[in-house]
Amino acid sequence: MNFVTEVKVEESKQKINHKDNIMLIGSCFTNEIGQKFIESGFNVFINPFGILYNPYSINECLNNVIEDKHLVCSDLIKVDEYYYAFSCHGDFRGQTIEECLAKINENIDKAHEFLLKTKYLIITLGTAWTYSYKDNNRVMGNCHKIDSSKIERKMMNVSQVSASMNVVIEKIKKTISQDIKIIFTLSPIRHWREGFKDNLLSKSTLYLAINEVCSQDDVFYFPSYEIVMDELRDYRFYARDMLHISDLAVDYIWQKFSDSYFDERTMMMNKDFIKLYLMKNHRPLNPDSEGYKKHLSKIKEMEKKLNNEINK
C-alpha cells in the first residue's frame, strides 16, 4: 500500500551542468535551493537584492540588473538610524545614504555582469500581496519595520503578475540573451500573517499567472509547491514554526529537481563537489599540524580534478 500521493516530475529536456551560470531570485526558498547548488559546485548568484517575495519587487530588481541601473537617493527611506531601499531586503542598509547606495549599486554591477553569462534564471514567487509606502506609493520589497499606518496592502491579480513577468522576460531575451532558460517555482512556504484565506488566494493567483507565463518557449515550471503540499503533507517536513519547510523537505525537493534537470554525469560530479564542500568547511583542532596540511593538499588535488572534469 502506498501512503503518499507522489508528485511525478517529468525529466527535463534542458540539462543543467557545471559549466552553466545560474542566477536565483525570490523568496527564502530561493536561498535554500541556492545553497544546494553551491554545495554541489555550481557557479550561482543568489538573490542580488536579498530575499524578495512579491512579483512587483522581483521584477523591479531584475529590471535594474538587466539595465545595470543604479539606485539614487529617492529610492531610499530612513527608518530609525538606518537607510533602506524600498525595493530591497533589509540586509541592504547603511547608516548613511552613501553607504547604503554603495552596497546596493555594487551588487547591481556584479549581478549585471553575472546575468550576461547566465544560462538559467530561477525565479521563486512567494506572495501576490504587495505593501506600498503611502507617501509615494512605492511598492516595498520589505517593510523595514515601518509603522503599519503608513503602509497600504494590495493583492496583484493574475493579469498584473503575468504581464509584469512577461515584460521582464522579453527584456532579458532582447538585451541579455535569446538563449537564457527561465525556471519558475512557487514557494511552498505559507505566508500565515496574511491569513489563511488570503494566503490561499495569493498562492492561487501566482499559480495561475505562472501557468500563463510558462506557455512560451524556454520558460519552465518546477513543482516545488505541489511536492510539499501533496507529497510531503506531514508536519515532520516542517520547521518548528510549522510554516517553513525542514532541511529534510529541502533535501527531498532538491533530489526531485536533480532527477529532472541533471544527467548522470552531473549527478556524480555533484557528489564529489559535496565531498569537497565538506572538506573545505572542516575546522581543524590544530591548523599547523601535518595532518591538516595533508588535508589542504587533498583539497587542492580534488579541486584540480573536478575543474578538469568540468572543462572536458
Offer a few descriptive terms.
9 helices; about 300 residues; three-stranded antiparallel beta sheet; five-stranded parallel beta sheet; Rossmann fold; alpha/beta; about 45% helix; single chain
**Terminus-to-terminus distance:** 45 Å
Number of domains: 1
Would you identify the CATH H-level superfamily? SGNH hydrolase
Given this structure, which CATH class is correct? Alpha Beta
The major beta sheet can be summarized as: 5 strands, parallel
Q: What is the CATH T-level topology? A: Rossmann fold
Structure summary, number of beta strands = 11
The arrangement of helices and strands along the chain is EHEHEEEHEEEEHEHEHHHH
Which ranges are low-confidence, i.e. pLDDT below 50, for 5 or more consecutive residues? Answer: none
- What percentage of amino acids are in beta strands? 15-25%
The residue-averaged pLDDT reads 93
